[in-house]
Amino acid sequence: MVISTKAQREGGDAASDTPVTQWLDAPTDDSVETVVTYMLEHPSQSVSSTHIVATAKAFKQLADMCRDPDVRTRLANGALAAASSALLERVVADLGSKTEQSNDGHAENVFLLVQVLRCICNQSADTDAARAQLQQHGGMAALARALNIDDVWRQPVPVAQAAFGAVLNVSLDHTSCTQSLVDAGAIEPHISALRVQRLGNGAHTVWPLVCSSLDNLCEDAEAAAAHFEQHTGLAPAMLQALAEITERLAEIAKLSAEVAERLVQTKEQQDAEVTAALRGAQRTLLWNLCEVLEKSSIVRQQLCQPVYMHKMFDILAYYVATGGPDEPTQAEQSVAQPPSRPLPQGNRNADATAQMIVGVSGEDAALSMFDDSGLQQRLFAQLTQSESALAAAAALCLGNLARTDAHCTRLAESHSDVVRAAIAWFESGEVRVRHAASGLLKNLCVPVAAKARMVELGLPAVAARNVDTAVVPVQANAIGILRHLVNGCAEPTVQALLALEPGKSQGQDQSQCALERLLTAVRGTDIDGIRCEGTRLVAAVAKAVYLKRACDAQDLEARDLDLVAPLVRLIVLDGQRHPLLQQESLVALTVLVAASSIRAPYAHAVVRSLVPETLTIGTVSEPTDDEPANDTAEANDAETTAPDSFTDVLKRLLTQSGPVWPQSTMQAKSLITQLTTQLNVQPNPFDPTGLDILRTEIIPLTN
């Protein structure tokens, strides 16, 4: 049926609109365009007290019609999106400006709101054209405002259900609509919706929609992070909601079997549904917060307060205590699991929480938290207990917070029990806690004032036993600890490196010292970090023995160790990328050459290294992700091209060809000067080929 008079089409008093109610009640395929056009052109009459119920019924019929994909497609380019957006904005404004008690037509407005939201939800299902039309006509902003009206949670079913269902469908796989919703402030009401105090009146049945919708809004983590940066309360609110849900789940987990058995069947079912909703919301909040924190340092800084760190540790404690997620219950599979978040395997939730702790505590703004006595005592307690996952997180957090010399010194001097606990974890814990504890201990070894205390507590011997462990992060930390200590407490550290231990390699029954095992590890590794840091430790030991007299040189020379080869390899392979390391190695070579003797033929080894065939260098390292090759050809060259020889590198340093540190040039000249001196004092002959290269190609360049 069509509008018969111009007055009716342009509006008029209630009496003149009476015929409209006849077709508003049940629009058909033939009349739908006319009905929608009327509502679009006459919003005031459509929501008037006379017609509001009829309008709501019309939208109910339209929502049902839009379940048909063909109808959705046909209506996508019509006026339905415009009419839906306009009336949604109108009814949201009416509900937002009046209280439930002051508005006689409140129930009718809520009825209309639900039906309009249902219509938006259904017309935008898998239909990008409808979503674009809704966005064009202001539907995103109206939807975001609809989430904030009080009636959403006065009647979670059906109001919240319709509201979040509409946002879910509109935002699904549609970047532009999602961004418009985020810009309009839709994230905050989602977080607010997942507060524990919202539970009741069947609200838990709506939470899966909220979770899925929030997943959509945060799918572009960088865009979501930018929004969180601008709205500083979002990250704390999300963490607070996550902490509340976790606390409620912990309370549920404490229910005894006896109490559970007394519950009637209907209440058991309801409790199971609530628990499933809580777990789904917990998972959604955790992973979205993790992704935002990973993307934004600014958001991490918003959580740099002790109260938030306590909440993160509470959440971690829950995941550790529950042993990680088991197989999902049937309720979780069918209701609570957001489709874009796969169920974690193992204890990934605990891992994600620990990563949040590490990220936040790693910000400079978090350093002040070290002085918070409550947080400090909690970290100390977790580090000294027997639960490795909590101890690992505490060690990582404490290592991040104790990054200043003052904090490290205070921790080493005043909390020996904590340091002893970290040393125990370093030596005998599982891989994760060994890594975390060794990282903390490495930080504590940096300040000069703390080194002696770390030696007193027995750290050098423990680190020396781990220089060749198969766990690379632990190995790197062990080498770093020894390098820091040898530069401040040389004697006990060198003694730990030279102490004899039973051989660890298969088939070995002779004794090996840690320095020998380190040299083997450095020679055999293809990991740049281990090779470089291990060689720096070798250089530091050489200088400590021959310059600082950290031990009797004969103790080192009796081991007959090849200290020259790793230093030469570092100069050749890593010198251009790490000029400081190159200079350190040149200094160490100079010291070794000056200390040459019959027992320690270091000068002979250096001369022999001038012959390319006598020193196995390997190939140039492949480009890393941080240093990508410019093109495929360069990448192939990097994989196959052999590096320059030691002779070529010395020539480049002496002639300052290319990017060369002046200090490295001076040190190279000092090395050649010492070699020249040794030619005249060493009784044993030098390699003739290397000697010829030295005299004809190298020495002339020193002038």
Q: What do you see in this structure?
A:
It is a single chain. This protein has 703 residues and is mostly helical. It contains 42 helices and 2 strands. A two-stranded antiparallel ribbon has the order 1-2. Strand 1 (500-502) and strand 2 (511-513) form a beta hairpin. The model is unreliable at 1-19, 325-346, 505-509 and 619-640 (pLDDT under 50).
Secondary structure elements and pairings:
Blueprint: H1 6-10, H2 20-24, H3 32-41, H4 43-46, H5 52-65, H6 69-75, H7 80-97, H8 106-123, H9 128-136, H10 139-146, H11 151-154, H12 156-171, H13 175-183, H14 187-193, H15 207-217, H16 221-230, H17 234-253, H18 257-262, H19 265-295, H20 297-302, H21 306-322, H22 330-336, H23 348-361, H24 373-383, H25 388-401, H26 405-414, H27 416-428, H28 431-444, H29 448-456, H30 459-464, H31 472-486, H32 490-498, E1 500-502, E2 511-513, H33 514-524, H34 528-546, H35 553-557, H36 564-574, H37 579-594, H38 602-609, H39 632-640, H40 646-655, H41 662-681, H42 688-698
Antiparallel strand pairs: 1-2
Question: Which spans of ≥5 residues are poorly predicted at pLDDT below 50?
Answer: 1-19, 325-346, 505-509, 619-640
Tally of separate helices: 42
Mean pLDDT: 84
**Widest beta sheet: strand line-up:** 1-2
Task: Specify the biggest β-sheet.
Answer: 2 strands, antiparallel
Give the total of beta strands. Answer: 2
Category by helix and strand content:
mainly alpha
Helix share bin: 55-70%
Rough shape?
Answer: elongated
Query: What's the multimeric state?
Result: single chain
Report the radius of gyration as a whole number of Å: 36 Å
Question: What is the terminal-to-terminal distance?
Answer: 105 Å
The percentage of residues in β strands lies in under 5%
